[in-house]
Design a protein that fits this description.
The chain is α/β, with parallel strands linked by helices and 295 residues long. It is built from 14 helices and eight strands. The chain has an eight-stranded mixed β-sheet with strand order 1-2-4-3-5-6-7-8, sandwiched between helices. Helix 2 packs across helix 3 and helix 7 packs across helix 10. The radius of gyration is 17 Å and the shape is globular.
């Protein structure tokens, strides 16, 4: 995977961010989701690298990246794993690589870091692709009984420590495989090498704790940040592509793009017939949609 890409670690104040970079052309930042690492992009990276200089980090707390050790006494709002702070990591990383302005795609948790970066640093982002998510505040507001069961991991991972940490840590292989089976429509299309990378990180108690902090921030401070932006009428300034999976966010009466139009003025969409892991389950169609949008 990632032949010809370079590796690096950027030390950015409170975090150490591992990343790969490769390709040529305008910069394109790719942010992975839970429970993955930057390896999530391995199937679409070759096509994108022909037109763009790719930057593929592990988010703080995931894979080989590190943030502060979770400490509820010192950080009761879980600010260290808020999307605002994680977005600041990405701005600093891109600065360190000489990319003051860049395009960006984010899947799952990476999409949440991505739209927070768009809102907090609008001058930095030329275009943004949100992969298979709706904004965090909107997700919590739609948490009825059916949605709570379908997305039970949101409240489960946000339960105060050490409950989810202990339960996941007792059998990480089972929990991880359960998530893949639950979210993927085409489980067999996930590359075994990538899956091993995803699973290996969940044998590290730090990663389990840090990723739970990500979700605790999502249940609290991230939701408040979204509410403040909505109340102030702040919207994403750049064009937004909503690339979503009918096997995860749909079928529904309306597409997620309708929700995103409340958060951005220029929204387009592409729906794929697959599960949540869109760039791994339908890599050719996903790469084509991303190339069309970013070119």
């Amino acid at each position: 995977m990632f032949d010809g890409f370079k590796e690096g670690t950027a030390r950015l104040g409170g975090a150490e961010i591992y990343y790969r970079t490769g390709g040529s052309g305008p910069p394109l930042l790719l942010l992975h989701g839970y429970p993955q690492t930057h390896h999530a992009w391995h199937k679409v990276a070759p096509a994108l690298a022909e037109r763009f200089t790719l930057v593929l980090p592990d988010l703080r707390g995931y894979g080989r990246s590190r943030g502060p050790a979770p400490d509820a006494a010192r950080d009761p709002d879980h600010l260290a794993y808020s999307k605002r702070v994680m977005a600041t990591d990405m701005v600093a990383l891109m600065d360190s690589l000489g990319h003051p302005r860049f395009a960006m795609a984010g899947h799952d948790r990476g999409g949440r870091v991505g739209y927070r970066l768009c809102l907090d640093h609008p001058e930095r982002v030329t275009k943004f692709a949100a992969l298979d998510i709706i904004p965090t505040l909107e997700n919590w507001e739609r948490m009825n009984a059916d949605n709570a069961i379908a997305t039970y991991h949101w409240p489960f991972l946000a339960v105060p420590a050490p409950v989810p940490e202990r339960l996941i840590g007792s059998d990480p292989d089972f929990y991880f495989s359960h998530l893949l089976d639950r979210w993927a429509v085409y489980r067999d299309r996930l590359d075994p090498l990538a899956v091993r990378e995803y699973l290996a990180q969940f044998h590290d108690p730090y990663v389990i704790a840090a990723t739970c902090e990500d979700y605790r921030a999502g249940a609290g401070i991230d939701r408040r940040h979204d509410a403040e932006d909505r109340a102030a009428g702040r919207k994403i300034a750049c064009p937004v592509l909503v690339l979503w999976a009918r096997g995860y966010l749909g079928p529904k009466a309306s597409s997620p793009a309708d929700i995103w139009r409340g958060w951005a003025g220029d929204v387009s969409e592409v729906a794929l017939e697959c599960g949540h892991f869109v760039v791994e389950e339908e890599p050719e169609q996903a790469a084509s949609a991303l190339l069309d949008f970013f070119s």
